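Study this one:
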Amino acid sequence: MPKRSDKDTSLTLMMRVKQDPADPQAWDEFVQRYQPIIRAWCLRWGSQPSDADDVAQQVLVRLLGAMKKYHYDPVASFRGWLKTVTHNAWLDFVGARRRTSGKDHEHLASIADSHDASADLENEMEQAFQQELLELAMRRVEERVKPTTWKAFRLTHVENLSGTEAAERLKVPVSQVYVARHRVVKLLKEELQGLSPDAGG
């Protein structure tokens, strides 16, 4: 994987694509991350496995196109921007599907006509963005704390080990594990608050 700049690692993929539509690396990584999410959404809404890749690709292409064309209003919220570009991509997909769908593609047309499917796609994109924020916050916090502190957090919060099990694995007192976990959780909350593009606005 190409080495990222410090600027890149301080942003989510969604933010990078929005801020620099000409960044090919951001687009490539965006596709790798979001195509499986959109494909799973297609399957959930009745697309056949044989069609899911095609539908996911069409929706993703239109999503990327909508991101490039949509002019972000700095007064509006980031989530509002995300909802708008997803909605615009959906309208483009629906229009294309209506022009090309024949009798054999009625199940795909029914997805295109579903308002619930559209709302669900917007929700999927929002959740994926929230996951990006969390991962970015975790990378930042990991760089700020000692390795043992981070390991204590991962063992208890991510791998769901008990405090006693984590203490035994790290060879530290149980109290140290709980203090470490509390500290990391607090730092994560602070990072997430600072990272949120809608914070304070």
